[in-house]
Amino acid sequence: SGWASSVDDSLPDTISRRFRYDVALVSALKDLEEDIMEGLRESGMEDSACTSGFNVTIKESCDGMGDVSEKHGGGPVVPEKAVRFSITIMTVSVLADDEEEEVTIFTEPKPNSELSCKPLCLMFVDESDHETVTALLGPIVAERNAMKESRLILSIGGLPRSFRFH
């Protein structure tokens, strides 16, 4: 299954699960496929003229989730606090092959909604433990920086399309 190759374990003595950055972006974009196609239609863009030049703006957030401990016993001892790192696709814009200006074809209507935030990493750690949080998020930052330097080619609406991330 693709699960093992898209999820990383982390530091010993720390309970954490995370998705690879590229896997999370693909999942988020595929979830928005209908919205992206609708945005192209509403903008009057020729579908086949929009296979390259998609730009995606991402918002990242890291939230302490407070007390998440289980009080009924059994199983391993789990720290009482958790931190969630997530991404939200804020906008998708495109530069049609024959155009000079970018057109925004998707804007997230509820950027702070649980429904629009895609979890990237869940850590059972106190958010005030900056050293551990930083160590756990280090690989995510490296993956994000790599994604900003590259393009992702993904099939949206039956055509391969090229995305850049900001």
TrEMBL record:
Gene name as annotated: rag1
Gene Ontology annotations of biological process type: adaptive immune response; B cell differentiation; chromatin organization; T cell differentiation in thymus; V(D)J recombination
Occurrences of domain V(D)J recombination-activating protein 1 pre-RNase H (ranges): 1-52
An example Gene Ontology molecular-function term: histone binding
Protein known as: RAG1
Coiled coil: none
GO cellular component: DNA recombinase complex; endodeoxyribonuclease complex; nucleus
Residue intervals of the V(D)J recombination-activating protein 1 RNase H domain: 56-166
InterPro entries listed in its UniProt record: RAG1, RAG1_pre-RNase_H, RAG1_RNase_H
